[in-house]
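With this grant's support, we have settled on a layout for protein records. A representative record follows, to show the layout.
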Amino acid sequence: MKKNKFFRLLNRTLMACGLLAMGACSGGSNGGGGDEPAPKPAENVTLRSTSIKEGAEVDASVDKLTLSYSTTVQVSAKADITLNGKSVSAASSSKTTMDVEVNLALEEGKSYTLKIAAGSIVARDDNSRTAPEFTLNFTTKKAPSMDLPDNDAMKVTHMIGFGWNLGNHFDSYDGGNAKDNYRITWSKDCPYWDGKIPTEKLYKSLAAAGVKTVRMPVTWGPYQNMTDGNYTIDADYMATVKQNVLWAKAAGLNVVLNTHHDEYWQDAYGASTSTTLNDELKARITATWTQIATAFKDEGDYLILETFNELNHNWASPTSGELKIQNEWNQVAVDAIRAVGGANATRWIAVPSYQANPGQAMSSAFKIPNDAANNLIVAIHCYDPYSFTLEKESNKDDADLKVKKWGHNAGNSYDEKNITDLFAKIKAAFIDKNIPVYLGEFGCSRHKTDLGNRCRDYYLEYFCRACCFYGLACCLWDNQNPGGGSEHHAYFNHADGSWCDNHEAIVKTMVKAATSNDATYTLESIYARAPK
C-alpha cells in the first residue's frame, strides 16, 4: 500500500511539472522545439493630430472633427463612436485617405466628450492594425445674448441705430490755408474732396435705405477768420452746413456734427509741451464750439455734437501728456457747448478717446468729462484689422495681386474672435455701466478680386451683427471713392443718394445685421457662411 501510494504521488508530480514546462514553452519565443516563430501582435495605428484640441472652446457651427492618422485608414463596420454617450457617424475624408471625419451636431454653451472605442479605426491595408481608444473633451462658445441692459446707454444705441458718414465732404481741407486759397485748390464751384454737392434727395434716400443717423464730419479751421481775435466762422459756410443738417432732420434722421480734420491746428502734442500753446488752442476750441452750439441751440435732441475726431501725433503711440490734453480739451468743448444754453444744455455730446482708439478709451488714462446733464457718449472708431480693411492690397500690377481674405477660413491671425472679444470688453467697460458708446467710423475698402470682396461683405455683415449683440451703434464710412483699392468706400452718391458700386445689397444686409431683433439671426449663422 505504501509503495503504490508513493508511485501515485510521483506520477502526479511528474505530470504537474510537465504541464508547467509546456506552459513555459508556449510563452517563449519558440514553441514545439523552436521551429516556428510566434505571431507578432498587430501594430497599432497612431493618431497624429485632431482639428479640435483637448479642452478647446469651439463655435457651435463646427460640424466635423477631423482625425489625422499615421497611415491610410477607414472606419470599421463595427465602429463605436459616441458624443456625450450618443452614437455619431464617421467616414473617411474626401481629401485624404489618412483622415477620418466625425460628424458633429453641436449646441452653444455646452460641454462635450467624444469617445472612439479601440478598433473603430483600422488600417486600409490590414484590418488587424487598429487605432487605440481615443477620448476628447471640449466645449462650445456661448453666443452673446440679445438680452442687453435696459438702460440709457442702450436707448442711445437704438436712437443712433445704423449710421452713415458724409465723408470727404465738409471735412475737406487744404493744409489749413485761408478760405480763398482752399477754394482755389479744389474749385470755386465744388471745393470738396468728394466732388459732390449734397441735395435734400440724398437724405431722403438714406432714410429710405434704413440709415437712421448721418455723421457729418466738418473741418472748420479753413473757414475761420484768423485775424479778428474771435476765430469767426464764415457765415456762408455755417449756413451750408446747417442746411444739410436741416435736410437730414426733415428726412427723419439724427445728425452727428463734429470738428474733424481740424487736427491740423489741434496740436495735442505741442500743447502737452507748451502751456502757452495749450492756452491758445483752448481759446480757439472754446470759440469754435461756442459758435457751432449757438448756430444750433434751438435744434432738438436729434442733433448730437461730437467734440473731436481723431487727435493724433503722426499716429505714434501717445505720450501721457497727450492723453491728458485729450481729457482736458474734451472738458473744454463740453463746457463751451453747455454754456450756450438752449437745447445744448442737455443734448447728447460725444467725446472721443485719443485717436478714437478703443484701447485708449478703455485705459485708465481716459477720463470722461464732468457733465451736469450726464448726457455724454464715448466715441470710438474701429477698422480692425487694418491689414484687411484699409491697407493697400499690392504694390504690384493687378495680375500679381495677392487676394485679401478675412475670417476663420482665411487662416489669418485676426478673425471673428478678435472682433467679439473687443466688443465684449467695450460692453463690459461702458454699456453695462450705463455709459453709451458708438462707433463713429467703421468700414472696409472695396477689394480688387471677387473672393476679396466676398470676404469683405462677410466682414461687414459679421461686424454689424456683433455691434448689435454687444449694444454698440455704428456709422459706416463713405468717402465717395468708387472702385477697388485702399480707401475705396463708396455706397451712396453724395449728391442724390443713388447707389454706388452696386452696393445696395450689402448696405441692406448691414442695416439688418445692426438692427434686427431676430434671435435666430446669430453670429453663428453668419459664421457658417464664411467664404472659403
Remarks:
- Residues 2-26 form the longest helix (25 residues).
- Confidence is low (pLDDT under 50) at residues 1-34, 180-186.
- The first strand starts at residue 30 and ends at 31.
